[in-house]
Amino acid sequence: MFKPTPKVVAALRERLGTDAALETDLTRRRPDLTAALLRAAADPAPLGRDLTAAVCRAGCALLGERHPGATIEVRVPPFAAVQIGFGTGPSHTRGTPPNVVEMSADTFIALAVGRLAWADATMSASGVHADEASRAFPLRSPAGG
Length: 145
Known about the structure:
Radius of gyration: 15 Å
Oligomer: single chain
Order of helices and strands: HHHHEEEHE
Helix content: 25-40%
Largest sheet: 4 strands, mixed
Number of helices: 5
Strand content: 5-15%
């Protein structure tokens, strides 16, 4: 769940215009802007630092919700990191995990919205289970699903 900050809300409104779903989300007592952030990221135009950070943090949080575990750590420096699992491999408890995938924010966002395929992404991956993270992407389909 991604909680809004005034800067992020303003940037989303600027990016999405009159987006009824965003306004509906904002009326909730505890709004979750993850879907709105992914909609905003679907356009390949630059997001700016505030939205880039928000999309990365919300995307990593969504990865953790959808794929709980501690086998693979997905890192998007300097914005976010999350540990995920798919029921295989070791569960890491402290220190650097044996399975790490690290990528730029632009790569993470492109994977998250389906603009980039895992096989075409530039990233650093280590560990025998690191490539299993590919199963988690995209977070949102390019068509808007």
